[in-house]
Every structure is written in C-alpha cells, then in structure tokens.
Amino acid sequence: MKKIGITTTVPIEVLLAADYEVIDLNNIFITSTDYNKYIDIAERDGFPKSSCAWIKGIYGACLENGIKEVVAVIEGDCSNTRALIEVMELKGIKVYPFAYPHSHKLADIKTSINDFMKLFDVREEEVEKVRARLSSLRSLAAEIDRLTYKDNKATGFENHLYQVSCSDFNSNLVEFEAELKEKVEEISKREEIKKKLSLGFIGVPPMTCDIYEYVTNFDAYFVYNEVQREFAFPRVVESDNIYQQYYDYTYVYDLDFRLAEIKKQIELRDLDGIIHYTQAFCYREIEDIVIKEQLDIPVLNIVGDKQNSLDSRTKLRLEAFLDMLGDLKERRL
C-alpha cells in the first residue's frame, strides 16, 4: 500500500478510498523518543531557529521516514505551510494541496473536496463508504470523551491521545479500532476520578504532554480538549455527507465559529478554567487577545517551543493559575 503524509487533519476518507496508508507527520514527530533529531534535520537544511518547532518537526519526520507524497493544508491551518511545501518539493516530495475555504461557505467547501477527490481519482460514493466505516471508530473516540467529562473515569491525557490519533487512525483502522474498544472497556471499569477543578484545553495539541499529569497535583483535571476533539469529528452523526462533516469542523475556520463551540463545551462540562496553548512564533498567539475577551471564564495562555516537557516558569504560572481558580470556586460554593 502506498504511504502518504499529512500536515494536519484533512479529508482522510478520500485518501483511504484511494488506497493510501495515511500518516500524520505530527504524530511521528511528537511521539518519537528522539523528537529533537527531526528539528535538527530542518535547521541543518536552513529552517530558522525562530520558526515553529512543529513545522520543523513535520519536515524532519517526512525526510527521515522516507515519505514521498504529502497532503499539505494551504488554507485554514498553519501560515508557514506554503513555504514548507516549496522546500519539500525542492527535496523531490510530491505535495498535494488542500484548502479549507476562508469563506466557510458550504458550496466552497464542496468545491474544495470535489477537487481533492479528482486529484486522487475517487468518486463520492467510494468516499461515503469509507466515511461510514470510520464512523464506528469516531463513535469509540466520542465514548472516551464521554467517559472523561460525564463519568470522570478517563484521564485528560487519554482523552487527548485517542482523539488526536483520529487524524490518521494510527495508520491502521483494524488495530486502532481494537485498541479503542479495549480502552473503552478498561476505562469503564475504573473508579471515578475526583478532582476539585475541571479544566479545558484549547489551541493546538501540546508538545508538552506532561501538562495533563502536572495539573493533577493541584486537584485539577482536564475534561475537554478542543482541537483533539475536533480531529475526531464529534458531530459526524449529524452530517449527511462528507461536505457537511468538514463544514462543521471548527478549528480551520474563523475564530467566532470556533468560539461558539468552545462556549457550548464550557457550559456542558462545567469548566472552571481554560488553558490556551499556542506554539512559539505562531500567528495564533495573537488570537489569545480575542479568546480572553470573548470567553467568560479565566484563561491562561502558555506558549510551547522545542521542549516536550513543561519548564519551571510555566509550572509556576500553572500553579498560580490553579490556586486562583481554587479560591474562586470556594467563594462560589
């Protein structure tokens, strides 16, 4: 089976219908025991130190793992992707572009997905068959999400891991489905996790995944992972077709559309505070201004760079923020 890398979530149904093994380059990069080697590869090839670690990691992972074809999102995700494409093509990698239209009009999204299907020579009926197959896996990921905020049994990291993995289903649908089923059964048998504070995580999935365990030291617990949840398409059952499904995908469109869903989840999950994670040198850091203005809940912005663990300064900021949330909650009780 042919392999194809992706720079972020794309209509994977099209790629699977075209008989590709899909590999999320982000996942290869961040799960590596020596993730820094991917960044080093990019910097040796001329990527500036003041550029996003994710972009450099994606590039390094692509070259190091011999990925010859890549789908890159040129609208709706990272603003650096266009430059990344040019360097990849220079290295002989075939790049297929995909765009989430800024207009966020259903007709424009339909055109974009139809063009994507033509690019890979697949028909809508074939894509819909794959979409139906993936619905069972997405429903299992949704169950892990429910076990997190409803039953308080899944950890914040498990919530993050199994939803973020839905970008490529770990490149093996059968094995990933079996793993999800086993994990749902195991989590269901656990005792309830009892923590004072319920937290939400918004923004790009973190490089510093130890944040999930760290906050538990302060009687806190992540019960919402915004973008990871979007990767799992939690509203897929409400979509009549692939066009509607990707129209409802919040992260890649305007901030107001994204914030509307975040506000719903804040109320549904009774969140006490939000951690807004951004990556250094990313334009999304600026969005924090709007997010803090629009959300009626305390928000702490933390910025990641090359490290895959929290630094001492960020730990101190988190501790102070969680102490403040605890005091606020006690006053309300």
From TrEMBL:
Cofactor(s) demanded: [4Fe-4S] cluster
Sorted UniProt keywords: Coiled coil, Iron, Iron-sulfur, Metal-binding
Keyword 4Fe-4S among record annotations: no
GO molecular function terms listed in the Swiss-Prot or TrEMBL record: hydro-lyase activity; iron-sulfur cluster binding
Domain of life: Bacteria
Coiled-coil ranges per UniProt: 166-193
Protein name, UniProt field: Benzoyl-CoA reductase/2-hydroxyglutaryl-CoA dehydratase subunit BcrC/BadD/HgdB
Organism: Orenia marismortui
